[in-house]
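Hi support team,

I submitted a single chain yesterday and got back a structure, but I'm not sure I'm reading the token output correctly. Could someone confirm the output below corresponds to the sequence I sent? I've pasted both exactly as they appear in my results page.

Thanks,
R.
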Amino acid sequence: MTMNIHPLCAAIITSSVALASCSRNEDPSPLAGKWGTGMQLTSWGEAETVLVFDRGILTIHFTSRSGDSIRESSPYVIEKETIISEGFNDGKPMPYTLKDGVLELIDPVSGVMRLTKR
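Hi R., thanks for writing in. Yes, this is the structure output for that exact sequence:
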């Protein structure tokens, strides 16, 4: 048995399925995903910083070479090329640039932190 579906109805059904699957699974943020610095010298010795942007939640994971670890998660928003999150930069907007898979966080005091997409 075959069903005849009007072409307009088929287009609406196809578009609805595509939109639903996209909106449920993808983070619309340009920063969505996992970003890391690799091991770098910090004020606490050698350590790696990893940021994960996932559906409005920013998780910051700092791990020293000795294995000590700090992890914190909080909601975030992107406004005018800045990241705003209570758990990041004391809630103050953090300017950033994103180019060729490199995320640069720009802090006027401590300088630029470069992270690459994982």
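A quick pointer for reading it: The two ends are 49 Å apart (CA to CA). Let us know if anything else looks off.

Best,
Support desk
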